[in-house]
Amino acid sequence: MNVLKSAPTGISVGSYMSNAAPTKIDSKDIYTTNSAQIVDNTGANSSNGNIVALASGHNTYGSMWSTNQSFDINKKQTISAWLYFGSGNEDTSDINSEGIAFVLQNDSNGVGALGAGLEGMGVYGYDASGYNLFTGSNATQSYIQKTAIQNSVALEFDTANNSFYLPTAPINNNSGLFTGSGLGSYFSLDGYDTQLSTLPSSSLGFGSDAKYGAGGGYGHIALTYPGFADSYYSTVFSGAAVSAYSPWTAGYVLMHKSSKEAYLIDTEDQNGSPLYWHHVTINWTPAASGSTTGTLSYNFNDKNLDYSDNTLTSGYSVPFSKSIDVDTSKLNTTDGKVRWGFTAANGPSTSVASKLVAFDSIPDLLNSDADANIVDTTLNNKEITDTSTDNTVANGDSLKLNYNLNYLNGNVDWQDIAAKIKIPDDVTLTPDASNNIATITYGDGTTETISANELVDNSLQHTLAKKIGETTDASGKTAQITINAKAVNNTTSDINVSRAVATFSGSNSIASTNSPAFTILTTPQYTLDLANANSSDEIDLLYKQDNATLDLPTTLDYSDNHSFGDTTSSTNIVYQITAGDKTYTVGSSATGTSFNQTIDLKSLINDDTAFWNLFTLGSTNKVTVKAIDTTNGLVSNTITYNVVTQQNESLSMEVSKSLEFKDINYGDSTEYLPRKNAFDLSVTSFREPWQLNVTTNGLYLNGETLNENMALVYKKNSSSQYNTLSTTPTLIDEDTSSPDTDTTTDISDNWTNSTGLLLKQLGLSTAGQYTGTLTWTVSDSVNNT
């Protein structure tokens, strides 16, 4: 009753599991009952019970199966369960016998499938050995095979070492140990675990991890093929077994794969509390396409009764795991659908312990899991997980304790999920203005709040209002519970915070996780000081300048001038730069007693459009910077830069569209003809040096060139030479300065009738109106000469 009362919560399985009495094979078959039943924590039969009692009382045996063939070997599957075996009292060595087996089966007897009791553990065949006055007769291999559960694979948790070389005596399931009487009766010779030096033949296909028999003083875990004839091997007795088993001269042993010694007894958990229930997580990985080799893996003793992870490294309750190849052809299924369940048997001792199973999850329903992490929002959203190399936070840091619930697969939604989250030590929860301390964010984006009133004895207890899964009624396949907290360390040394368990108990699946361990650093007796390395906090930024940068110069020091590091060590620094409504981060490794770092914000934003949308022409924007010493958990003061976005360099030109020269009569020998109309020519620049050039193809009359008669020339001033314009650029004017204000140079303003653009007569010209084109080019360059 103590064991039942201390049983894990478990999920109700009455709707998903059932059994029936086995079919009697022949007159020798004495295993005709099935003692397995579903009970509650009082031991009473209950359709809503959460415990399967497989064998209760001496010489009992039983099986309990999924009502339907719901285990699909072509899909990943998980079963999470608790097993109870007994105390393993050394004075009564058979108090734990015989054991429990997890079984996949495709037996035609369905929920009535059951093997032999005793060493058969409800799954193996009956080694029915007959007795007469002078000789003993053995069962045949074929008889043992047909009395086992057919088309099956079993993971046995065998609590007794049934060995011919640790002889007790043959056992009759009804009358007890063989004492020399029992004419006409059939006995189990009780030797399936006998270890032989002979290994199974490779031609049998068991694999290199197979052997006959298994050891283990307090039991073992191994994989077997109960319904396969060659799993049973006849061996001739030798040594002490000859007399112990007379008149029988031989018996059968069982093939075991990946046998692992295990302490299948009551022990203590890592907290020193009595451990009756052993947790096991069994995972199935299907065979690859075209293969018949699947994988069954298990984690044993992986959780304590409070669902915290078992981290013991010594003693009887050390967690361990194994991965075992499985020949799926032994299941003889065409569609991959088989039954799953548990079998068990008890030995003849009147003090033998019941064999019990309680479930966290079953493959009929759904697979779920949970994980946890911590995010330090003060230290640049540093994430801490079980595998983090840096798991430190600082006193006063704001933390988010995140618990992620995941619906993996299944036939129904995960519902009625009751969360019980133990808050890690040395953190204080921080309610918001509405006294809420946590938010649940579902996969569909909807949210739910958790009130501070739901904190009981430092555990947050809340039943999720929504279910998660794949149906239209579910709120997505995930739910994240985020608890707002603050790290607290008022001591003079660092505090190592242990992992804290969180369980999520739904009506149809239970998942658990642990918050990661972390360290709260003691508050340093110095500060981290950040300063602007420039004398002014104002920074001029030229709008859309080519190859623009926005450099933020910083200097970082400790208040007591101690060093960030040297050539062999450094301090990790993260800078947080806020501009507009966004924050950008960049990391660095600081060395020396004073560390200078220039941060190019434009490179951090790394998006020209976004950058210039923020730093618009004519605007003044505040940019703030703070530094975070993630090594020591320090946050600096915040400094501010005022970024003034100014007009970038510009260059433009104004020129009249037309130019006319003086009319002349035939015979007029004037050499240089002045301009007839006003002509405007100017260049405006801002932060740009410039050159102004002009080219022309000359003058034309009716499409015929007049370059032999007329030439366009330029004379800058009265002291300048005449320059003939041609297709080669002629320099008109230039300015090598870069004025900080818009500056207009009116080039034509000082032209006279004898300077500027003129028309030169080279000879007599044909009468008519001559036309031509001037091409003006102003460029942001200076003449190399």
Quick take:
Residues 738-748 have a biased composition (Low complexity). The protein has 785 residues and is mainly β.
What would you call the structural class?
A: mainly beta
Q: Report the sheet with the most strands, covering strand number, pairing sense and barrel closure.
A: 10 strands, antiparallel
CATH class of the largest domain: Mainly Beta
How many domain units? 4
Shape: elongated
CATH architecture of the largest domain: Sandwich
Question: What proportion of the residues is helical, as a percent range?
Answer: under 10%
- Radius of gyration equals 45 Å
CATH topology of the largest domain: Jelly Rolls
Relevant terms:
4 domains; Immunoglobulin-like; elongated; mainly beta
Strands, helices and their partners?
Layout: H1 2-5, E1 17-18, E2 37-39, E3 51-55, E4 61-66, E5 71-72, E6 77-84, E7 98-105, E8 128-131, E9 136-137, H2 141-147, E10 152-158, E11 171-172, E12 176-177, E13 186-188, E14 210-212, E15 220-224, E16 232-236, H3 240-244, E17 250-261, E18 267-268, E19 274-275, E20 277-285, E21 293-300, E22 320-327, E23 337-346, E24 355-361, E25 366-376, E26 382-384, E27 392-394, E28 398-410, E29 418-422, E30 427-429, E31 436-442, E32 447-451, E33 455-456, E34 459-463, E35 478-487, E36 495-497, E37 501-505, E38 510-514, E39 518-521, E40 528-532, E41 538-542, E42 551-558, E43 571-579, E44 582-590, E45 594-600, H4 601-605, H5 608-614, E46 620-629, E47 634-646, E48 650-655, E49 672-673, E50 681-686, E51 690-701, E52 704-705, E53 710-715, E54 723-724, E55 730-735, E56 743-746, E57 756-761, E58 771-779
Parallel strand pairs: 27-39, 41-47
Antiparallel strand pairs: 1-4, 2-3, 3-24, 4-23, 5-23, 6-20, 6-24, 7-10, 7-23, 8-9, 8-13, 10-15, 11-12, 14-17, 15-17, 16-17, 18-19, 20-21, 21-22, 25-26, 25-28, 28-35, 29-34, 29-37, 30-35, 31-32, 31-35, 33-34, 36-39, 37-38, 40-42, 42-45, 43-44, 43-46, 46-47, 48-50, 49-57, 50-56, 51-52, 51-55, ...
